[in-house]
Amino acid sequence: MKTEKRLTKQQKADKIAEMLEKYYPETPIPLDHTDSYTLLIAVLLSAQCTDARVNKITPLLFAEANTPQTMIQLSVEEIREIIKPCGLSPRKSKAIHQLSHILLEEHEGKVPESFEALEALPGVGHKTASVVMSQAFGHPAFPVDTHIHRLAYRWTLSTGKNVEKTEKDLKKLFPKETWNKLHLQIIFFGREHCPARGHKPEDCPICSLYGRKSLF
Length: 216
Description:
mainly alpha; 12 helices
């Protein structure tokens, strides 16, 4: 294992950020969408499902309904049949139908631009709200999914106790103006160089330098 001794956690974070910027200077949003509503639905569908699969399903769903007004015209069962390949379809179809009603009844058919209002919607947790706030509205947020949670632990940037703690740790280490781009850079890096399975720390550009000793 290659090491750079006597680095503080902050120094390590700064170097990792430099590496991520070098590897991924551009960060396209991985979920295909056309507006805040279709992004919200895509992120909701991505729970325990790959972005690639979501991007295959959403065109079929959005061809039928891509606004709250048109979505409520579909039955929960019709939504479920379309999104079934994404998994958890009974729960997700109900959430999509219910939140579309709420958007119309309480938000004039628009996706609300606040964490509190977003997290009050069915099927929308803090991570989903963070993605929408950052990618749809440009507000600083650091969405932490299981992948970022895993990498932050591997890179000794967080204790890995839970995603809430990981989010707090990362927000302390990185400037707020970098959060929206950085969380995507971490996701892209993880997919290409630091996967959950079959990972070889000695071959990973970041783990080989800054990885947790227990990985080796």
